[in-house]
Design a protein that fits this description.
three-stranded antiparallel beta sheet, alpha+beta, 251 residues
């Protein structure tokens, strides 16, 4: 009977007793591995639960910190708007909860604003007026320049859509900002150009059927004439010269 049992084992698990024992050891190892994997899975589930609870705890702390900073930022930005002839504009930091776990916390954060009294708040990307967008970006860059560790800021035609007292205030704000970081402006505004410490004249010329952009730094007399030209066109007058000098603070 025992021999018959051994023969059955040989038929099923190996031709020799050695092979049967090797199969037994292999099965035992696999069973141990399955048991280990089940234990490991239980440990991972436990760790996941602990980490998830920790995530929500830290995310809640981060949310409260962000809301505190957000309120401070709202106040600072709204003060900047007053300096830029946007007294009726209101800036807000909007928080909405994410549906998935994220390395950046539970919140989606969006800057929204209302540019006029009674107007709904909307994302900055939905602000239609080019002049408003320019001033909003100037206000944001003025505030963030002190913490972003940025040494140079470039504004491309920030005077678009603004004139008069507004462009004068923008020029003043750019001058203040330039005391903290280097500010480069591409502008057609005499007020903004006149507040600069260096001015370059940029001109496109066609030579040999190729367009070349030429840049030349202007000396003080050239600056006066160029700003006067921006004011009055190619017909530069004594009044436009004096106006240019006044803008530059030379009168």
């Amino acid at each position: 009977e025992r021999i018959e049992q051994i023969n059955k084992l040989k038929f099923k698990y190996g031709a020799t007793i050695k092979e049967i024992n090797e199969y037994k050891i292999d099965i035992e190892n696999k069973l141990s591995l399955i048991k280990f994997e089940n234990e490991e899975l239980d440990n991972l589930k436990k760790e996941k639960k602990e980490k998830t609870l920790e995530y929500f705890k830290l995310s809640e702390e981060l949310r409260e910190f962000r809301k505190t900073i957000g309120r401070e930022l709202e106040s600072i930005i709204n003060d900047q708007f007053k300096d830029l002839n946007m007294e009726n504009a209101k800036f807000k930091v909007n928080f909405s909860e994410k549906r998935v776990i994220s390395s950046k916390g539970m919140d989606d954060i969006e800057f929204i604003m209302s540019t006029n009294i009674g107007e709904d708040f909307k994302p900055l990307s939905k602000i239609a007026s080019g002049g408003e967008v320019s001033r909003i970006m100037l206000a944001l860059k003025t505030v963030f320049s002190s913490v972003d560790n940025i040494s140079v800021l470039i504004f491309d035609e920030i005077d678009t859509g603004i004139s008069g007292e507004t462009v004068r205030k923008v020029a003043k704000k750019l001058k203040e900002l330039s005391e903290k970081v280097q500010v480069i402006c591409v502008t057609h505004s005499p007020q903004i150009a006149g507040k600069s410490t260096q001015q370059f004249f940029i001109k496109k010329e066609i030579e040999n059927k190729l367009t070349e952009t030429k840049v030349r730094e202007l000396n003080q007399q050239e600056r006066i004439r160029e700003i006067a030209r921006i004011i009055s066109g190619d017909n530069i007058t004594e009044n436009s010269i004096n106006h240019a000098k006044e803008i530059m603070g030379l009168l």
